[in-house]
Amino acid sequence: MDETVLTEDGIRLWATRIGEGEPVVFCHGGPGLWDTMADVAASLAAVATVYRWDQRGCGRSERSGPYSVARTLADLDAVRAHFGLERMALLGHSWGAQLALRYALAYPERVTKLVYVSGTGIDLGSTWHEAYERNLRRGIGEHVARWELLGSMDRTDAEDRELCVLQWSADFVDRDRALQHADDMATPWFGVNFECNAALNAEDKRDWGSPQLRDRCAALEVPTLIVDGAEDIRPRSAVDSLAQALPAVSRVSLTGAGHLPWVEDPTGFRSAVGGFLSGYRA
Is the pTM of this model over 0.85? Predict the structure, then answer.
């Protein structure tokens, strides 16, 4: 059942829950996108109560700012409070993995476990982004000219969707099914919040990659599982420094999977994440 979470500044956030067991709150990717992990929630419902939500200005949530990392962390805490959770596990994907890590660093006493899926680590983006751009263009393949054209022009909503489907298709290893997987991600289509995307990405660039961040991660005692698709177009070496910094961490790399590993290896993903979560102890 859909629910409305009201933030402290009066913004309405969409949320929903499914399952039975220890509480796990999902943090979707983006920024500026929406939750597309209903299938993940369903696969984990036997071992956890899964809470999904759309971040401020995104998807089914109210399209209103302001947009900042601090504001998004406060919104995540509003989701926790709305559902009456004293403590919770967090599962974050891509940008959401960074968000979940930030929350755990800010409020470690409220986080039981952290599942860090397809994130990009704690180093500066410049250490991996050039390789990502090469891999992205290679993954888009024969559609790269159309993708470039769409990216350079003023677009309709339908053209925004086309651009995203072409770009997201590069995130899948199975090229025969990549466009269909990407189209599934874009259905239903809620529209990208590019203002939110720009604001949060700019903030990440300012404060990611510092020695202080590494030290904070080294002091984080929250048990963490890092889950990677081995063929993610974002180099997995970007996550190495995070894995080395965290004191209570395990890591699973799923062969034959890309940026959304639960799509291309659902069994391996469910086994790794479900096993980690079901071993929860308060």
Answer: yes
Residues in the chain: 282
Residues whose CB is less than 8 angstroms from the CB of residue 97 and which lie 6 or more positions away in sequence, other chains included: 27, 29, 116, 117, 118, 119, 120
Inter-CA distances, 102 with 6, 17, 186, 221, 262, Å: 21, 23, 27, 14, 23
CATH code for position 58:
3.40.50.1820
Tally of domains in the chain: 1
54: DSSP letter: P
Residues whose CB is less than 8 angstroms from the CB of residue 142 and which lie 6 or more positions away in sequence, other chains included = none
Nearby residues of 75 by Cβ (< 8 Å), 6 or more positions away: 5, 7, 11, 13, 55, 56
In a domain, 233, yes or no: yes
Domain that holds residue 123: 3-127+189-278
Q: Is residue 155 part of a domain?
A: no
Spatial distance between the Cα atoms of 35 and 52, rounded to a whole number of angstroms = 7
| Rounded Cα distance, 185 and 168, in Å | 8
Name residues of the chain where pLDDT drops below 50: 280-282
Whole-angstrom Cα distance, residue 25 to residue 282?
16
CB 40 within 8 A of CB 68: no
Would 146 be classed as within a structural domain? no
Query: How far is Cα 156 from Cα 181, in angstroms, rounded to an integer?
Result: 22
Residue % of the chain over a pLDDT of 70: 99
Cα separation, 274 vs 282, in Å, equals 16
Strands (E), 137-282: 224-229, 249-254
- Cα separation, 157 vs 13, in Å, equals 22
Summarised one tens digit per residue, pLDDT across range 236-258 is: 999 999 999 999 999 999 999 99
Q: Are strands 88-93 and 224-229 parallel, antiparallel or unpaired?
A: unpaired
